[in-house]
Design a protein that fits this description.
With 392 residues, the chain is of the alpha/beta class. It has helices at residues 37-45, 49-64, 81-95, 111-116, 152-164, 172-183, 204-218, 233-245, 273-281, 298-310, 339-342, 352-364, 369-376, 380-391, and strands at 3-8, 21-25, 34-35, 74-75, 100-103, 127-135, 138-147, 189-192, 224-228, 250-253, 264-268, 285-290, 327-330, 336-338.
Length: 392
């Protein structure tokens, strides 16, 4: 019988008592490639942005000969693997007074945990990934945690190969075969990340159909559904309801991309990640704890995460200090390069209009506008009412 418990640290300050370890799941480093497709989609959804975007795209093409290509561009989160690991560990150790286990899951990439294994304090980090799994016209993000060290690279190559197969050439049994083989490895944990989020914008109704079909066909290989620390409380309640429908556990997943540590973690009586996986897979136990930052207005937290992405970090390694060194785009020959190398000016700085746009967004995070927006976006009363109803 599956048993999931959910606690909120701001309501239950002693929630971590009786547990042995805190587990941070699903966070990202600068090894993760984050798509820029959403920029083009925003301009389609918000009509007033279209003329601005078309003007900016045309100007870019005239000055540089490069036409904006959002599908093949990407940005990387600011934190290095070591900084990300230390941030997640410190939150658990300082706030919960527990030893920490950290599983980093960059998009379709295991470089971060492999690099961290050379650091003494992180040598036991699991080899994990957030795998992009195409499914009909959409795709789902699947957290694959604790791959075998000896075959992790081979597994990653196999997963990438499946992701890259065109729809017309994808045989129905290929995904089942991969998931079944992963499920046969006792130490591996497979999590359906943010299942309610229509990330690929196929429409809410169609997304719901696809999620349920995916679980009907492959749910036997899924060990838990994620409650996502960067999604709002309403969506996470729907994810919990979905998990109940399919007799699945719910599990934490912070999905951190910026410098705020994960907004939820798991509590466990295990002392190693493999023992934690056994607790989830065999004992069917999961104890999710939301951290105080989750109680902050959701839109405000998304803004802060955006600001983290476009912030400059002078103390970072050379080549990653400015936001335009962490955004990549094809050059005129199709080679991927940082934006900082593509600007037309000799100073390698963003054009004035781009700098003005970035400055405007940064102003949203500065006083007094930040405080005004936070108040306008405050949905804590709705969350408290929902939790009170849940307790009743």
């Amino acid at each position: 019988m599956s048993q999931s418990t959910i606690s909120y640290l701001w309501r239950e300050p002693e929630a971590a008592k009786g547990f042995t370890t805190g587990v941070s799941l699903h966070s990202h480093t600068n090894q993760s490639h984050e798509t820029l497709d959403f920029i083009a989609e925003l301009s389609r959804d918000w009509g007033f942005l279209q003329p601005i975007m078309r003007w900016a795209e045309g100007r870019s093409h005239r000055l540089s000969g490069i036409r904006p290509d959002y599908a093949h561009s990407y940005w990387t989160p600011p934190l290095t693997p070591r900084l990300a690991f230390d941030l997640e560990s410190k939150q658990i150790e300082d706030r919960l007074q527990l030893p920490a286990l950290v599983s980093i899951t960059d998009h379709d990439d295991i470089n971060a945990p492999l690099l961290l294994r050379t650091v003494p304090s992180a040598r036991h980090i699991p080899v994990s990934v957030e795998w992009t799994v195409p499914f009909y016209e959409s795709a789902f993000h699947i957290g694959v945690h604790n791959l075998p060290s000896a075959t992790g690279i081979e597994w990653m190559e196999r997963m990438r190969a499946f992701t890259a197969i065109p729809v017309a050439e994808r045989a129905p049994g290929m995904l089942r075969e991969i998931l079944a083989e992963l499920d046969e490895i006792p130490q591996v944990m497979i999590v359906f990340n943010h299942p309610i989020w229509d990330l690929y914008r196929v429409g809410h109704a169609r997304h719901e159909v696809l999620v349920n079909e995916f679980l009907a066909v492959y749910g036997q290989y899924i060990h838990a559904l994620e409650l996502n620390g960067l999604r709002d409380w309403k969506e996470n309640r729907e994810a919990a309801t979905l998990a109940g429908k399919w007799n699945q556990l719910v599990i934490s997943g912070g999905d951190r991309h910026g410098v705020e540590p994960n907004a939820n973690v798991n509590l466990t009586r295990a002392t190693s990640f493999t023992e934690f996986v056994n607790e989830v897979r065999r004992e069917r136990q999961s104890h999710v704890l939301y951290m105080p930052q989750y109680a902050e207005p959701w839109k405000h937290r998304i803004l802060q995460s955006t600001l983290d992405a476009i912030h400059d970090y002078p103390h970072f390694p050379e080549g990653t200090q400015r936001w335009d060194q962490r955004v990549y785009h094809p050059d005129a020959s199709g080679n991927i390069r940082p934006l900082s190398e593509l600007w037309a000016s000799e100073a390698k700085r963003a054009p004035v209009w781009v700098s003005a746009l970035i400055h405007s967004v940064r102003m949203m995070g500065a006083a007094p506008l930040s405080g005004t927006l936070r108040l306008a976006w405050d949905d804590s009363a709705k969350m408290r009412a929902a939790l009170a109803k849940q307790d009743a």
